[in-house]
Write a structure and sequence with these properties.
The complex is a heterodimer of chains A (97) and B (496).
Chain A (H helix, E strand, L loop, with lengths): L1 H32 L13 H17 L9 H19 L6
Chain B lengths: L13 H26 L3 H6 L6 H12 L2 H14 L1 H16 L1 H11 L6 H8 L4 H34 L3 H49 L3 H12 L9 H20 L2 H9 L5 H12 L1 H15 L14 H8 L4 H38 L5 H25 L4 H23 L5 H22 L1 H23 L21
Helix pairs in contact in B: 1-8, 1-9, 1-16, 3-9, 3-13, 3-16, 4-5, 4-14, 4-16, 5-11, 5-13, 5-14, 6-12, 6-13, 7-8, 8-9, 8-16, 8-17, 8-18, 9-14, 9-16, 9-17, 10-14, 11-18, 11-20, 12-16, 14-15, 16-17, 18-19, 18-20, 19-20
The chains are: A mainly alpha (97), B mainly alpha (496).
């Protein structure tokens, strides 16, 4: 499992840095364009996903008390966090300026 | 399981410790200088990043400022002390506290799009009441200094323990590293270095925890069996004593720590308006795995029957002790130190950036409105150094933090419901807001000190909330939050 987590960790790091680079380019391009940012705050349904993540975290911790394999869920999910942050850069709108 | 497996590592020299601290600082400084050159031209850019922080940087930086150095260690410590129940009560409210910002963030960003600070909102919400505004401003400053202080102290303890560096020297080196790079780019620097620090926290944490379990004969199964054999409750999340002992109090404390913290409000107004809601949702959800991962080190401590005396007397040291004594390679130990340093630096630079917004908007512009942009920019940049210097002096003085911790706790918890109601309930008025906070401190804090944390915290919340409700029902006038849209930008970017 250690080897797997290390390999996945390296892959996730590359993905994260690629996203970071995209985000940095976006930020510079937008700053230079000077295009005014819209001030609208769109309606956003978040209750279900928020509740799900709270419950999932509780279930994962409780799971470590039922199966030793679940102890590795923490490290694996920490990689998901890094991947999620990287993904956020690709989900954001590209600079239009 | 035989705890003689744990032995000190001679390769962990002070030189390596300094190299880790300064290396991360120099890397951040280089990035910060680039950020300053490309993205920061004035006070507006420095404190609010021109309200152009994108989704990726928003998510990464919110996770980074919420991942305190102490939290990295506390997740292991709570598991070590209470078993999985400790981890449960430490983790579950933590991510929720970040997501709890969403409704308030959306309302204020929608109704006060040109805002900078929560104190500024209170100023306009309560007809420029000096008392209400001052209470919130002071609370935010206290909270920021405490954030810096706790992270600095935690990190100096870890670095001194692992590398044998004098803790006072470690404190000074740490703060100099952070403040040097924070000074240049303000919020932009904070969000970018913070986002990178999220990478430096997550991937190394996963690898190091997996390496620790790989090093243990029998791996996860052996730890699972030994922890259960030591006490079956270690593998349960249902221990009522963990909930009563710290869980419920911590849950409210964490809510107060986000909703009553300018570090988060600064990001509410700096992230692009269309991304505000999902930024806090993703950050809260993606934060969860970090303490869950590091908490698993606590089970190792239980399985080996380690005692606080074995690890220097303080259970917070359980994670650093296991990683630096179980026989991992030097690279892995340095990776773990990097996790803690990254958590420390990102929280301190985030807090320093928040302080700069308070100084610019809530102090200089409020009390000296004629201050020129060039003077304001200089003062704002210098203010980044202010909180760090004060916190360092307190840490170095060896003073007991208890008074500062209690004062900040009292202010933040007392302010929580009045602040929430001032956003959500139009009938909230200045009398209720100020009266609720004052009553909670005057009546609630003595209850807290005599009846304990749980009853004390619930009392503070009940007193502050009920006072606002009663005053609002008696007062009877509704405040139109949408009127705040007329508020102009206090520190708009000067024309090119």
């Amino acid at each position: 499992m250690y080897a797997l987590i290390t390999i996945v960790g390296i892959v996730v790091t590359v993905f994260f840095l690629a996203g970071f680079g995209r985000g940095l380019k976006n930020a510079i391009a937008e700053y230079r364009s000077g295009t005014p940012e819209p001030t609208t705050v769109p309606d956003y349904r978040y209750g279900g996903i928020a509740a799900l993540s709270v419950i999932a975290s509780a279930v994962i911790i409780a799971g470590a008390g039922f199966s030793p394999a679940m102890i590795y869920a923490g490290p694996l999910l920490a990689l998901v966090t890094a991947a999620g942050c990287g993904l956020a850069f690709f989900v954001e709108d590209k600079a239009t300026g | 399981m035989d705890k003689s497996i744990f032995a000190a590592m001679p390769a962990l020299t002070p030189t390596l410790g300094f190299a880790s601290m300064i290396g991360l600082g120099l890397f951040s400084l280089a990035l910060s200088y680039g950020v300053k050159t490309l993205l920061v031209r004035n006070t507006h850019d420095f404190i609010i990043a021109d309200r152009r922080v994108g989704f990726g940087f928003g998510v990464g930086s919110v996770i980074a400022v919420w991942t305190w150095a102490m939290a990295v260690m506390m997740s292991s410590a709570m598991t070590f002390n209470w078993g999985l129940s400790g981890l449960f009560w430490f983790v579950v409210p933590n991510g929720f506290a970040v997501m709890a910002m969403i409704p308030f963030a959306r309302i204020l960003r929608k109704n006060m799009p040109e805002g900078y600070t929560i104190s500024e909102f209170i100023e306009y919400r309560f007809n420029r009441s000096k008392v209400a505004t001052a209470i919130v401003t002071v609370t935010m400053i206290f909270g920021i200094i405490l954030e810096i202080l706790i992270n600095l102290k935690g990190t100096s303890v870890v670095v001194s323990t692992v590398f044998g560096i004098d803790w006072k020297v470690a404190t000074v080196v740490g703060i100099v590293c952070v403040l040097t790079y924070s000074y240049f780019g303000g919020l932009w620097t904070s969000v970018m270095t913070g986002t990178l620090n999220t990478l430096m926290i997550t991937v190394p944490a996963a690898i190091v925890v997996a390496a620790v379990y790989a090093k243990i004969p029998g791996g996860t199964q052996a730890v699972f069996d030994a922890a259960g054999a030591a006490d079956a409750r270690n593998l349960s999340v249902l221990r009522p004593d963990a909930a009563a002992g710290f869980g419920i109090t911590l849950a409210f404390g964490l809510l107060a720590a986000t909703v009553s913290d300018q570090t988060f409000w600064q990001k509410v107004w700096a992230v692009k308006s269309r991304d505000v809601g999902r930024t806090f949702l993703w950050a809260g959800a993606l934060f969860y795995p970090i303490p869950i991962c590091l908490g698993m080190l606590g089970l190792v401590g239980i399985a080996y029957g380690l005692t606080p005396a074995d690890i220097g007397g303080d259970i917070v040291a359980i994670g650093p002790y296991i990683v630096s004594h179980i026989g991992l390679g030097l690279t892995l130990v340095l990776l773990y130190v990097l996790v803690i340093l990254a958590a420390c630096y990102s929280t301190i630079d985030g807090a320093s950036a928040a302080l700069s917004s308070i100084v610019a908007v809530d102090i200089v512009k409020r009390y000296f409105p004629q201050t020129s942009e060039s003077s304001l920019f200089v003062i704002t940049k210098l203010s980044v150094l202010f909180g760090g210097i004060i916190a360092t002096l307190i840490v170095l003085s060896g003073l007991d933090f208890t008074t500062l911790v209690l004062t900040t706790y009292a202010l933040k918890t007392s302010i929580l419901l009045p602040l929430v109601l001032s956003i959500l309930w139009p009938k909230t008025n200045m009398v209720g807001f100020v009266g609720g906070i004052a009553a909670a401190i005057v009546i609630g804090m003595p209850i807290y000190e005599t009846a304990g944390e749980l009853i004390g915290t619930l009392s503070i919340l009940a007193i502050s909330g009920l006072t606002v409700l009663v005053a609002g029902l008696v007062g009877g006038t509704d405040f139109d939050l949408s009127g705040l849209k007329r508020i102009t930008d206090e520190i708009s970017a000067p024309a090119e």
